[in-house]
Amino acid sequence: MSSPSASTETAAAGKRSADDNRVILVPYPKIIVLWPTWIASLLAGVYMHVDTGSVTKVDVEGAVASGVGWAFLILFTLNMIVLSFEFPRTTSLTLFFVVVALVLAGALAVVYFPNLLPAVGEWLASIRPQANATFYYLFFGAMAGIYVAVRINTWFDYWEVRPNELLHHHGFLSNLERFASPNLRIDKEINDVFEYWLCGAGRLILHPSNERRAIVLDNVTGITRKEQQITRLLSALQVKVRPEEED
Asked: What percentage of the chain has pLDDT greater than the value 90?
């Protein structure tokens, strides 16, 4: 009679073996890159809550609410730029940072040297974006709801690479498409360096041997690790098959 510990070890070994023989690929929507703004909204809400002692009150006369508001809006704007455009090369990335640096330098020059451009300085000083903790909490909650919905959707739409086949699981009734994975070719593309920095995401292009069209999966997180896992899986298959063909 086997002991409970032996049964547990056998089950764990079986699970590791099953995980080693497949790679799960999940394409996500681009909204995943907004996680810095999502986290910032929670931090801003907590900060305003602690500062005012209330979730509805805002210190209109103080500079704290305006500073938090400016910081949140700047981060949100930068995050939306990353969401709206792609920065595939170092040149475009450098241009982006140069433009941001020039804008920030101009704003600081106007604030700290009001005599430089009096009209612009007065206009910027008059802008005081403020929000109470409730606003930031609601923003965080709305984004959290969207992320939960995205995560649930991935349960019904994902790809699975196995040693002998490529599976596409989709639909609430678990519809399944099968493609042959031997001789499967994969291409990895990093089209946006910010998406890669923020989420480790990129594009995987799968070329099944018996399909005319390529299968394009955008915003696959952990793309470098996934590519390495698929490469090891397919390489192991080749090493296993070739000796059988020679015999």
From this structure: 32
